[in-house]
Amino acid sequence: MSLSDFLGFLHSQLRVTLPEPITRFTNQTIIVTGANSGIGLAAARQLVSLDAGRVILAVRSLERGEAAVRDIAASTGRAGVAEAWELDLARYASVEAFARRVIAELPRVDVLLANAGLYHFAFERAEDDETTITVNVVSHMLLALLLLPRMRETAARHRAGRPAMTQFPERRSPNIFADLADEGKARMQERYFVSKLIQLLTAREFASELTKSTKPGQVITSVINPGFVATDIMRHAGLAFQIYQAVLRRITARTPEEGGWTLVHAAEGAEETHGQYLDDCKVGKPSAFVLSPEGEATQKQLWRELLDKLEKIHPGIAQNI
Ligand SMILES: NC(=O)c1ccc[n+]([C@@H]2O[C@H](COP(=O)([O-])OP(=O)(O)OC[C@H]3O[C@@H](n4cnc5c(N)ncnc54)[C@H](OP(=O)(O)O)[C@@H]3O)[C@@H](O)[C@H]2O)c1
């Protein structure tokens, strides 16, 4: 990170006061992945307080999910709004089963907050890829495309019309995902930031594909930077890094509640947030790389590779766009 990036980070963490969300989500059905802890749990609680009709906590442990449901009901006084549903983003079959359940049981899906995430320093595989890439990137886009038709229907019925933390050298590979799945070449210290950059690039391309589509129902998509938030996300990182982060956290981190505000802000989904990178609850500026011609070419390559991958997992899925 350059000095000016670091000063920008400190400014954002220490000087910016985030706006507490007030928009109400009356009657809306919202899915929050990884909602049993951290920012996802805080956002789910806020959505229940803001009058959402149903909030689905998509969690890999139903026990932790049910504990979150009870906690949300007790703290908001609104029982029966949050529900825990099983979703393990490390397994495509679980993503597909979750999506089937959504289509069968949720007549509307207003918002998908693809919040779950992993921060690992050890190389482990899940399905075809390294686990951070499977969970943070591939499975979330698989889920988004599987739910897109239901979200479009919902929109048609109910809606009136800078990650600069990695050099991402793997972008030069003719097959980026294959390169990232090669343990011998893996640079796990940067893997999390690579996964987040890929999320941003593929979400931008996804947004432009959605804009071009003539199907009815407008679905808005954006990528959120919640800032540095005091949660346990780094529990699988190396020990030295965890100590460094613990010190930085004491001085600069936002609370999970403030992190939740950034998700809830994105859930409001205005026209001007479509395809955007949201920083401090505003449309932010992605890094120079993302906006460069090379960034654009990488974005298109990643999108092609990801769509090929998703077609193999779930043939015909591209038709949903
Ligand atoms: N904290 C920060 O400073 C910060 C900064 C920028 C971005 N973010 C992003 O914010 C999001 C939430 O992170 P957090 O800080 O709130 O950390 P967290 O408390 O560790 O939350 C991560 C959530 O993801 C879930 N998850 C992990 N693997 C999963 C899988 N295979 N299937 C389903 N769910 C899975 C976890 O479930 P388990 O409890 O079962 O493990 C947990 O509920 C992440 O995407 C993270 O990258 C965080």
UniProtKB/TrEMBL annotation:
<dbReference type="GO" id="GO:0016491">
    <property type="term" value="F:oxidoreductase activity"/>
</dbReference>
<keyword id="KW-0560">Oxidoreductase</keyword>
<dbReference type="InterPro" id="IPR036291">
    <property type="entry name" value="NAD(P)-bd_dom_sf"/>
</dbReference>
<dbReference type="InterPro" id="IPR002347">
    <property type="entry name" value="SDR_fam"/>
</dbReference>
<protein>
    <submittedName>
        <fullName>Uncharacterized protein</fullName>
    </submittedName>
</protein>
<dbReference type="Pfam" id="PF00106">
    <property type="entry name" value="adh_short"/>
</dbReference>
